[in-house]
Amino acid sequence: MKRVKVSNNVIRRMPRYLRKLDELTEAGITRISSFDLGHQLGLTPSQIRQDFSCFGEFGQQGYGYNVAALREQVAAILGMDRGFHAVLIGVGNIGRALMENFCFSEWGFHLLCAFDIKPELIGTELSGVPIRDMAEMERFLSDNAVDVAVLAVPKEAARRVTERLTACGIGAIWNFTNVELTDPNSNILVENIHFSDSLLSLSYFISERKDEEAIRAAKAEKLAEADKQDQ
Amino acid sequence: MKRVKVSNNVIRRMPRYLRKLDELTEAGITRISSFDLGHQLGLTPSQIRQDFSCFGEFGQQGYGYNVAALREQVAAILGMDRGFHAVLIGVGNIGRALMENFCFSEWGFHLLCAFDIKPELIGTELSGVPIRDMAEMERFLSDNAVDVAVLAVPKEAARRVTERLTACGIGAIWNFTNVELTDPNSNILVENIHFSDSLLSLSYFISERKDEEAIRAAKAEKLAEADKQDQ
Fold it and tell me: Read out DSSP for B18-70?
């Protein structure tokens, strides 16, 4: 694929386009204008056109986008057709939720196996995925081409396991541990799911809204006060 | 608090600062320069100074930042001292993982209760949080001041439950359902946790890296070929 340097914001919008296009497909909609697509996503039509222009010309003047074709192109942009291999490290609540509810294959990933240290889990399967002994991780990673490790171990174990993964030459970590793994000297790709970051951003927006409401209320009160004095 | 319009990127970095400052505190570090803080976060010192300047003057020339004071200020910026109230809707794998592993109070939130439709769950507690009948949700929300609903219901139920929450006048939703809830006409704040968006962004970055490696390898091969022909 043609690779130009695309801004992080554009990349982060691609999965949203994909979800929307899947929704449209489900609803039986086969083509859509950039205006309607933008309206449904809270984006301007020109932003939509600009985003896609980073990767080629997908729409057609006066026709809009063919939903199925655009969906396929977005999926290819995101690498969903590459069949990346993943392993999961840590079968606690989060690991279990991922294995039971998150459909890796829907996004083009093969979840090869999971690793844990709990004897009662080792040798069992969950949703058809075998759970192996953490002690075998290094061997498994050297015997198999694994593109991404899904890190769902307890916080305390995050750094030690990351060191082991780095030593194995793993290229990417999908990090659920809420521990900042970024080492400026490391070449590893880390994508974080920080629940708390997300909640705290929401907390910021709620606070902002409450402050704005308080300011409006205070102004209204002042105005009413001034009106009273004028009378 | 003084409110200026702050860019989304700055807001999204605030929780990362908080995590880093907590790490520093744990490591016994009481002050840090913007240079070192930036180095540890993969940001430039001037970006760090700019980010904080949106909210006031926190550092001191030649001294750097007092870790404890900065931590307190970031927490206040994020609204962690406001004691927001939350309810959880849906006690499946994700809901359970949140109740058992995610410490809402650590981030300033009180999780008042959870709602579900499964008779065997209703009336029980998980991590000290009562699970109530989904049918009681409207009454509970009208009797209690709730700032945010954590939405962890199955995909199919996402929109219907959101309509019910909107009708109750809820101000914010923390959305784990992987369904796009944004309605351009709604005033509700929605913060999404889309596991697939995150994985697909990672998928993009892995693809990009593989393509770059392939291009480099092809170039090296061509060069070697040319060298051979020259000889």
Answer: HHHHHHHHHTT--EE-HHHHHHHHT--HHHHHHHHHTT----BTTTBEEHHHH
